[in-house]
Amino acid sequence: MSNEIEPRHSDAYNMSPFNFFEDFGRSFFDGFKPNVIKTDIHENEKEYLVEAELPGIPKEDIHVTYENGVLTIVGQHQSDTQTEDKKGKLVRSERSLTSVRRQYLLENIKEDEIKATYSEGILKLTLPKDEHNIERKKSIPIE
Q: Whole-model pTM?
């Protein structure tokens, strides 16, 4: 008996019922990606610099909090579109809601000095480090 490696997402015409449904389910649900905030976090000796992409979300619908060492960014955007014909009959009505949320563990921050700006879909945060509160590494001797 030989061990054979069978590739995932194989040919849909392979009619083995187990492989077909497993691969179908994977390929079907691969198209559903969660709304994720694309983020870059840079660190230097004095601060963290966070850049989060929130395109299409108005500034008033973005909420940023910092609590217990956790930075939370929440954004939400709702749009309603209606199209009527010449007689005033409703031809099409669409609604969409986009909601995103991300959390980041960034400890030892001077909470009162956090600054945020938002321009052209990019949220920029500056989180100054609290150098008095930074835990120092301590070497522990082994007996």
A: 0.63
C-beta of residue 106 within 8 angstroms of C-beta of residue 140: no
Alpha-carbon dihedral of residues 134, 137, 140, 141, nearest 10 degrees? -140
Structural domain spans, the chain = 1-33, 35-128
Output the pLDDT for position 84: 78
Residue type, 84: E
Residue 64, class by beta-carbon neighbours within 10 Å (0-12 exposed, 13-18 middle, 19+ buried)?
Answer: middle
pLDDT confidence of 50, banded at 50, 70, 90?
A: very high
Provide the residue type at 105 as one letter. L
CATH number of 35-128: 2.60.40.790
